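Researcher: Sequence of Phosphate transport system permease protein PstA follows. Predict its structure.
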Amino acid sequence: MNTRAIKDNIVKLIIWVSSFITVGILVWILAYVIKNGISEINIEYLTTAPHGEEGGIFPMIISTIYIVLLSVIISTPIGVCAAIYLVEYAKPGKIVRLIRFATESLAGIPSIIFGLFGFIFFVTILKFGFSIIAGAITLSIMVLPTIVRTTEEALKSVPNSYREGSLALGTSKLRTIIKVVLPSAIPGILTAVILSVGRVVGETAAVYFTAGMGRGIPTSFKESGMTLSVHLYVLAKEGISFNKAYATATILVIIVALINLSANRIASRFRKTNP
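Model: Prediction complete. Tokens:
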């Protein structure tokens, strides 16, 4: 066996070992959390409000759903349209460099800074108060770079022959983007949304400073609401109940897993209809 073959085998071994270590760490963390939290989960825990060490997390589930849906609704159209402009319309120059610089800068800002900005601007200056809408807008700004960059790569992966064929048939550029390019890029756009939802669901600092810690079920977006991640943080920080904290973490894991599975199913259907 020559030297090149030996080096290739060593590299393959390192890749396989690294992959197994990564998967093993993930499985270990999930198993540890679920093992400690599954015993606390029951119908009462999922359908009642918290009171001290007792009660459940139903208001937190509703608040989390509200914030996730609202932040995705706000950020996805903006992010997708920005990516379309960068890929389909923009010419290399100062404006494109400025947009990319702003996107990279936003992606590198710690979440606590977003939380402080949201608290000062949305909660205090705009007088939204601690509310679902303040938290959702703050989180939509935070996940915007992820949507822009991932959607941009998805649009770039669409073959130029699709665009050229559509334009050759006399279709306008806008209609080509809507009818040809976007359907082909849907799996990548869904990936961007999945990544954004995962970050929103697991975010604590930005939500703590903007959405507040309301323990009731919010009846409007102007009311305060505690998400599952904030509830988990409070349970662990104040030492109220570590078993309840593990149970909340288990619910978070299940929610993220369901979102990922649903999005993957939708993406696979789009791949079949747009091979």
